[in-house]
Amino acid sequence: MQQRMSCIVEAANGVGKTVSVLLPSTLFAIENGMKLLYFTRTKAQLFEVLDELRRIRKKIPFKMSFLLGRRDLCVYKELKAADEADYKVFHDACRELRKWNLCPFYKDEGCNIAIDEKALCRPVILVEVCKTKRVCPYEVLRSEVAKSDVLVTLFPYVLNPLIRKYFFRNLTVDPSRTILVLDEAHNIPRLVLENLSDSVSLRTLERGMTEAGRMGYKSVEAFLRKLAEKMVRDGKVVVERGGEEVVIDICKYIEPLASEAGYKDLGSLVEDLLLFGEELRNYKASKGQLPLSYLHRIGAFLHFALRTSKNRDYAHLLCVDYGEEGGVKARLEVFMLSGAGYLRNVLSSVYSSIFVSGTILSMEHFSTQMGLASYVSCEVEDPYRKEQLLVLTITNVSTKFDSRSDEMYDLIGRIIVEAASSSPANIGAFFPSYDVLSSVLEKVSRYSLPKELIVEERGQKSHEVKEMIQKFKATSERGGALLLGVMGGKVSEGVNFAGNAMNTVIVVGFPADRPSERLKLLYERNKEVLGELAKDATYVIPAAQKAVQTAGRAIRSLLDRKAVLFLDGRYCSKDVVAYFPKWLKRRMIAIRYAENSVARLLKDFFGYVEDSS
Ligand code: SF4
Fold first, then answer.
1. Domains 6-62+149-196+339-379 and 386-606 share a fold
2. How far apart are the C-alpha atoms of 210 and 225, rounded to whole Å?
3. Which ligand 1 atom sits closest to the C-alpha of 103?
4. Considering the entire predicted model, what is its pTM?
5. How far is 116 from 245, CA to CA, in rounded Å?
6. H helices then E strands: how many in the chain?
7. Contact (Cβ atoms closer than 8 angstroms) between residue 540 and residue 576
8. Strands 245-248 and 314-322
9. CA of residue 166 to ligand 1 center, whole Å
């Protein structure tokens, strides 16, 4: 920080990365009259950082606060109840509610009220206090932002251009007087692309169509109907070909439909959508209704598509998601291919930035994606004791597409059951997809399992996942449970399983992304900047990262004693292992599975004797 450099900190779980970065950076910011902005990926991580800061504040006085998204903090029941999945529609509606003075929690004169210091760093208390005082929690926190020395918030406040603009404006400090700490930084290259991209779903189009129909906007209604029908038709073709998306030019895609609906050009269509959307919002507000407008949302998206049509940093896609009942959910997407330029601008405007992670598998790849020209790095290579971890790779198993068979699923099921019977308390097995999970689940169910079986299901809501995890953790005290989940899902990332909450973690298969148009485009783009590293950067590193993240879920302290099993021969490949952190790489023992081989090794390691009672 003294040299105003960017710093990448890479260390395995349990080392105490957060406090090691938080303490010196807080001190440096206070001593130099700067602001420390700490960004996390999830709310759970944000709360952990707040806990750590409260401990530091017992020794060093400073002002701290946090900021969540408007949608997370909104207390206006009517808007919350609208179940607004599209956050942009939510934000527009909130802005209109404030403009028309329709939200009872928003005060024109500002929500700068006296709030107890404690509430300012405890989200649950803050929301309750604000409800009682009839003020918007988001607005209260927003007014605190400028006063804090240390602020903890979420990634969109730095990765989303629009949100960042307003956020830095509220800080009332020049960005060059801010220090950024970005936790779980390996997620940033992926998340920045999401934040710079946009999409509209068939559901949004249908809602826009209903609005147009009700208001008598005939041409717009006709256009949206034709577009929705075309997307369903083309989406079915994509599904029949076994794909998930196809590259299009959205302007060329919608041009004939706009002309059939009577529009001379796309500019007039977008203008109508935005104008009618605005008109509808005003009409609803004047009637005291929620000023939501999907027409405006669609207009803003198509305007973005028009602007990016000839820009090679963006790709236009028609994507399909497979619905639960076999239906096709299509959406149009404008996808950003490289976030390096945006990140370079952001990072060069601040005093200094620190990236913290346990899974930066290639410094070269990461720094290029972050647009960092120079940086210093700090790597804590292997903090664990030798006897603390057992890492096995089972070589005669694979979930590679051409290896998938009934016999293979049965073999994987047998190994999981054997491991469950030979590990104390809880064990987790994570799969590359729900399809592989359900095929193995069918096999696992045929064996007698000494532990309770808990399964992560496709489409589970956040509160359901939370309840499932609580149940799983609680079961560790009552004989233990086997949890089956997917890699990259809500359980395998962002949840910690310390101690007995998960003694053995099984990584089933190598979680490479399915070949897709998007991946091909990213590869071509990566080739331009990364040369020979492009192939690994596109296909190998992201999958290895998911696998290492999953393995790391169970290892949370330097005192834990844990076993990690990689069930796929591909983990023996030099090309994959080259990217593994040292703490895993140097312990990997490759074995060919034979009956009881896994049981023997695990029982030896844990010194585990089954409870005969
Ligand atoms: S101003 Fe009102 S609608 Fe907007 S976030 Fe606050 S409580 Fe919700």
1. yes
2. 10
3. 2
4. 0.89
5. 51
6. 27, 18
7. yes
8. antiparallel
9. 16
Assess whether the C-beta atom of 472 lies below 6 angstroms from ligand 1: no
CATH superfamily of 386-606: P-loop containing nucleotide triphosphate hydrolases (3.40.50.300)
What residue spans define the domains of the chain? 6-62+149-196+339-379, 198-336, 386-606
pLDDT at site 613: 35
Q: What is the pLDDT of residues 496-519, one digit of tens each?
A: 898 899 999 999 999 999 889 999
Looking at ligand 1, which residue's alpha carbon is closest to its atom 4?
94
**pLDDT at residue 608 in the model:** 59
Furthest-apart CA atoms within the chain: distance in Å: 80
Integer-rounded Cα Rg, in Å, for the chain is: 26
Q: Does domain 6-62+149-196+339-379 have CATH number 3.40.630.30?
A: no
Q: Report whether residue 97 contacts ligand 1, using a CB cutoff of 6 Å.
A: yes
Task: Residue 117: name the closest of 72, 148, 154, 73 by CA.
Answer: 148
Question: What is the CB neighbour count within 10 angstroms for residue 307?
Answer: 11
Average pLDDT, the chain: 91
Name the closest-CA residue to atom 3, ligand 1. 94
Q: Write the DSSP assignment of 545-572 as a string of letters.
A: HHHHHHHHTS--STT--EEEEEE-GGGG
Question: Of the candidates 313, 303, 307, which has an alpha carbon nearest to the alpha carbon of residue 335?
Answer: 313
Count other C-beta atoms under 10 Å from residue 443's C-beta: 19
300: tokens are: 């803003």
Probe target for ligand 1 pocket from 105, 134, 163, with the most ligand atoms within 8 Å of CB = 105
CATH number of 198-336: 1.10.275.40
